[in-house]
TrEMBL record:
This is Mov34/MPN/PAD-1 family protein. It holds the Pfam family Halo_JAB_MPN. Residues 10-131 form the MPN domain. InterPro entries: JAB/MPN_dom-containing (IPR058877), MPN (IPR037518). One of its GO terms (biological process) is proteolysis. It comes from the Archaea. GO terms for molecular function: metal ion binding; metallopeptidase activity.
C-alpha cells in the first residue's frame, strides 16, 4: 500500500501533557508551539488500535511572540505518527483563533494551553477546530536509552581525536 491513513489518536501520555504545560509556562509571555508525535498503543502495552501522543517536537526556525507563534511547515516530519500541534495562548483563552483553525486541517488533534498553565488549563480540538475529547493516559513512555549511553571516549572516537 503506497499511502496509509494516520492512526486514530487514543489520548495523550500524562508526562507529555505535563511537559507541554511546563514548556508553555517557560515560554510565557510568548506563545509556545510544538508538534505532537504518537506512539502505537501496542508499543505501550495497551490493548487498543491507534496512537498515544508521547512526544512534542520543537521545529527549527519556529518563531514566537506574545500574540502568535509560527513554524516552518516544510520542516515538520511528514509521516503517519505526526498527529497534531500544541500551542499556548498566554492570555489564557482556551479557544482557537481564526489563524489557529487555518493550521488545524492537516492533523487530527490540536491542543491549546492557556496561562496559568495548570493541569486543567488546556483544551483539545479536532481538525475543524471543534472541541474533542482527549484522554490523559498514565503510560510508561519508551526511551531509547542506548542513544544516551556514551562517554567522552565515544565522543573523541566520533570526532576522530
Amino acid at each position: 500500500m503506497l499511502f496509509r491513513s494516520r492512526p486514530s489518536v487514543l489520548g495523550i501520555a500524562e508526562d507529555t501533557l505535563e511537559f507541554a504545560l511546563e514548556a508553555a509556562e517557560d515560554a510565557h509571555p510568548n506563545e509556545y508551539l510544538g508538534v505532537f508525535r504518537g506512539t502505537p498503543a501496542e508499543e505501550l502495552d495497551l490493548d487498543a488500535d491507534g496512537d498515544v501522543i508521547t512526544d512534542v517536537l520543537f521545529i527549527p526556525k519556529t518563531t514566537s511572540s506574545p500574540v502568535q507563534a509560527t513554524l516552518q511547515s516544510d520542516l515538520v516530519p511528514n509521516d503517519r505518527h505526526t498527529v497534531g500541534t500544541v500551542h499556548s495562548h498566554p492570555n489564557g483563552v482556551l479557544a482557537p483563533s481564526d489563524q489557529d483553525r487555518q493550521m488545524f486541517g492537516r492533523w487530527p488533534v490540536h491542543v491549546i494551553l492557556g496561562a496559568p498553565y495548570g493541569r486543567d488549563c488546556w483544551r483539545a480540538f479536532d481538525r475543524e477546530g471543534e472541541p474533542r475529547d482527549l484522554d490523559v493516559l498514565d503510560v510508561e513512555i519508551p526511551t531509547d536509552e542506548e542513544f544516551f549511553d556514551f562517554d567522552q571516549e565515544d565522543i573523541d572516537e566520533e570526532l576522530g581525536l
